[in-house]
Amino acid sequence: MAIRVIVFLTLFTGLCIADTKETGNLAFGAIAVQSTTYPQSGAQNAVDGNRNSIFSRQSCSATNAEKDPWWRADLLEVYKITRVSITNRGDGFAERINGAQIRIGSCLENNGNNNDLAATVESIPLGETQTFAFKPITGRYVNIFIPGRTEHLTLCEVEVFADNYTPSYTCVLTQRNLAIGARAVQSTTYQLTVAKNAIDGNKNSIFNLGSCSATNWDKDPWWRVDLLEVYEVTRVSITNRGDGFVERINGAQIRIGNSLENNGNNNELAATVASIPLGETRTFAFKPIKGRFVNIFIPGRNEHLTLCEVEVFAD
After folding, report:
1. What is the sign of the dihedral through the CA atoms of 206, 57, 141 and 184?
2. Distance CA 64, CA 284 (A)
3. pLDDT tens, 123-143?
4. Using CA of residue 57, residue 85, residue 120, residue 69, what is the dihedral sign?
5. Spatial separation of the C-alpha atoms in residues 197 and 130, rounded to whole Å
6. Cα separation of 95 and 228, whole Å?
7. Of the candidates 182, 151, 179, which has an alpha carbon nearest to the alpha carbon of residue 71?
8. How many helices (H) and strands (E) does the chain have?
9. Max Cα-Cα span within the chain
10. Overall pTM surpassing 0.85 (yes/no)
11. Residues 6+ apart with CB under 8 A from 302
């Protein structure tokens, strides 16, 4: 069932909040991801500016039939969201959207599905748009999440709107995952598990769902993200594979710097991974290290290097 989401919000500028009139659609062209992708129904279809609700026209996003499916828009800034509108698929399966939750916040724990609950969809008629209004919720991420059952989650558009602010600023601490939208490469690529899968904003740790990167069985395998600018990096979070081979990440080094000598693996050692439990995310904090490149590197043995998400932060 296809759905359209419209979100109305109150804008934060950078790290500070200000007040004025309603903005345009903030979701148009935003970064969208989803738990899995049904053929030719990518998450970005829901922020393409096209409300067509006929599924075969390929302007709707859709997940596979799966347990607890979700979709997420990254607005790239923090807003005070007050309304979300969803347009349902117009050519059948109207009931699939029933029970979907709208969740809003700035945390990516559980892929953002633990953020504040804004509203729950009871039902939306075929091809129609329904608006959900609520008290302002501050956040960067807007999730549509169907908990507790196996379902296709289909969205035909997501639109996001905000009320700007005027002077009188209230500053808040926000931290951006610098790896989102960056460039990733790795020593080799196992089948279709490309390097950029590890920075797609999706922490799904089940390997065959296609959101993890992996190298072949290499000697000294490595993965590298280019942040495109130099930052003082203070934390790196790694999500391990959740369906087996938990030990493969053991001994991986996090290296940060500006050199590409030895593919960046000679840069400063920030931390070493002792182990990460199946499917879990571990954050490694260290003194600030200046660098553009962040490497995950397993020295001294033959191994598959598998990463289901890498997040990079600079305080």
Report:
1. positive
2. 33
3. 999 998 888 888 988 999 999
4. positive
5. 33
6. 44
7. 151
8. 0, 22
9. 59
10. no
11. 217, 218, 219
Say which residue the tokens 């391990």 belong to.
240
- Domains along the sequence of the chain with CATH: 4-171 (2.60.120.260), 183-313 (2.60.120.260)
Tokens of 185: 């490469």
Q: Which two tokens stand for residue 129?
A: 């748009």
| Chain centroid, CA 190 distance in Å | 22
Query: Which is nearest to 115 in space by CA: 147, 143, 157, 156?
Result: 143
Residue written as tokens 């999706």?
Answer: 202
Q: What is the 3-state secondary structure (H, E, C) of 1-36?
A: CCCEEEEEEEEEECCEEEEEEECCCCCCCCEEEECC
d(CA 197, CA 199): 5
Tell me the pLDDT tens digit for each residue of 215-246: 999 999 999 999 999 999 999 999 999 999 99
Residue-level length of the chain:
315
